[in-house]
Amino acid sequence: MSATSIPLPFTHSDGLSRVSRQIAVAVRSKSDLAVLLVHVHDVERLCASLGHMRVGQVLAEFHNELRAISRDNDAIERISECKFAVLLNGLRNRGHVSLAAQKINRVARKMEIGDTDQSALNTTVGVVLCPEQGDDPHELLRSAEIATLDGRRKNDSVCFYEESSADQLFTDWGLEARLANALVAGNLDLHYQPKISLRTNEIVGAEALMRWSEPEIGSISPDVFIDVAEKTGQIFDLTHFAIQRACRQLSEWQGLLPNLGIAVNITPSIIQNLEIVDVLQNAVSIWGTKPEFLTMEVTENALMADPRTSHDILTRIREFGAQVSIDDFGTGYSSLAYLKDIPADELKIDRSFVMGMMTDSGDHKIVVHSIQIAKSFGLTVVAEGIDSLETLNELRRLGCDFAQGFFVCKPIPAGVFESFCRDFEGIADA
Q: What is the Cα Rg of the chain in Å?
């Protein structure tokens, strides 16, 4: 069962990493796998009625009930406050998967909530099949997310992902208009994932990650609404919002966290648009922040779509004083000849390699070579997707500079991030 967020007490922040790793293992072993995303609805309203503590207890009990009905080779993970991922291995056909999903919904309907007009948990189960409908953990979870939304649209408690339904979903639910309204109504927010120095054990930065809680639909995955924004031409407005909000946050943190930087993700279409430099300059001017504390993260594949334009825009960003980071390194096809000339300061090793590096020799070699390549070109190195102390210590040994991942901390709201920074005492070697 997959993920998003509401303000509930929640400690299972490593669930998503485990799910991604388990999917990758199934793919490598060529096993049939059904990925089920269970979305519990109306949690915010329940919190208003019963309080966060009681609702947290109910969701924890639901998690235990799901484990109780699972088989030994299934995986049950809570991956956000209101979503769970269920991985079913070796089911023979869709009929068996559908029966399993219906069983999950029956368990939800039997949960005793308490004194409220809602007598049971309301759930929708989105289903995607591997390898029939894909084999990339990130994309499978995204497809399952779309399936849950599609199920709610059609009032089906169990919904299998269909590629043709995605566009229809955006049309029927008016996600384009809802997203435009979210920008005006203030339903978009940034969460921040800490970035720590592996040398000094200090928090040195944060990656800003956008979140959308739609009043009628609930929390919508960034994978879904960023795709909507790209298809409908709203991505520039979202990027403008993200940069403005990040600069405002830097301004507010100048006293508490004076040396902390914030990274903002830039999509492929944005890195081909010269206006992004004007947006950056305008935001820095408005909020009085220093450009050197801002980092623009752009994926390796985005750079290769139009290398000449990308090179020009990244050069201008760096000339202005902001930093440039190459995200998802290792998943694209950039040549070393291009990499040596790219105007960048940092390289981020893709999480899929970091998560598998302790169990897969190929992933470990990619991480080692990525660090060596970055160092040879004078770039600092960030490893993302760290989900264990063992992985973090190995990255320290290999000379990686910085770390991000659920083992350190999941993305959290600004106020929670401030508390995390105040209380952080570093992560010691085992």
A: 22
The rounded distance, in Å, linking the Cα atoms of 398 and 407 is 18
Triad 394, 388, 189: Cα angle to 5°: 120
For the domain spanning 175-423, the CATH number is 3.20.20.450
Residues 190 and 157 sit within 8 Å (Cβ to Cβ): no
End-to-end CA distance of the chain: 31
Which residue ranges does the chain devote to CATH 3.30.70.270? 15-165
Task: Specify the amino acid at residue 118.
Answer: Q
CA distance 2 to 113: 22
What pLDDT is recorded for position 3?
A: 32
413-422, long-range: CB < 8 A, 24+ apart: 413/7, 413/189, 413/191, 413/192, 414/190, 414/191, 414/192, 414/249, 414/252, 417/191, 417/192, 417/194, 417/206, 418/253, 418/256, 418/257, 420/194, 420/203, 421/194, 421/203, 421/256, 421/257, 421/260, 422/256
Among 3, 14, 351, 27, which residue's Cα sits nearest to residue 145? 3
Residue 108's Cα: distance from chain center in Å?
A: 26
Distances (CA, A) of 358 to 159, 285, 390: 36, 45, 8
Confidence of residue 338 (pLDDT cuts 50, 70, 90): low
Residues carrying CATH 3.20.20.450, the chain: 175-423
Which of the following CATH numbers is that of domain 15-165: 3.30.200.20, 3.90.740.10, 3.30.420.40, 3.30.70.270?
3.30.70.270
DSSP-derived secondary structure letter, 90? S
- Would you state the pLDDT for residue 73? 87
Distances (CA, A) of 218 to 4, 166, 309: 9, 17, 38
Residue type at position 334: S
